[in-house]
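Memo to structure team: turn this sequence into structure tokens by end of day. - J.P.
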Amino acid sequence: MNEKYITDPVFEELPLTALEQLELKYPPAEFEAFVAVGYNNMNKIRENLYNECKAKGYKMANYISSHCTYLSQFPTGDNCFILEDNTIQPYVKIGNNVVLWSGNHIGHDVLIEDHNFISSHVVVSGFVTIKRNCFIGVNATIRDAITIAPETLIAAGAIIMKDTVEKGVYLPARSTLFDKKSDEIQIS
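Reply from structure team:
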């Protein structure tokens, strides 16, 4: 956290150290760093802090849940945060500073470039490329063999069937109220 945002030297009973003072208290030769920041500004805040820590000489740590099924033979980049119930299939390549929240399916041969955030229960089919600084919302589906352009925002529930455009925003169709009541419908 930058010095200008610190209003209390303690958070959750732990000391806070400003980023500007980090290497004085925690030298890069002795400590690793991890940037735990969300997706604001298309992940660029997290990207800038990541780059600042790298410039200070820190090795960047990863967190990969022991409850993640990681089947790829390729290691992730650095500063990756992968939570439980993700399925990472063979030949997947994950870049630096990537967040995979809970319960995603990342299909075979997918390339996820740097500084991306994939929220929960996203399905990414095989041979997809996700370029840098994208956000993919809850329950989105991405078909196989397409490219998600840089800085694409895919909203919750969207279904992406073809390549996206850079900085495109993709919204799903909205559910509509049917003109019959539930007890008027035969479910077989």
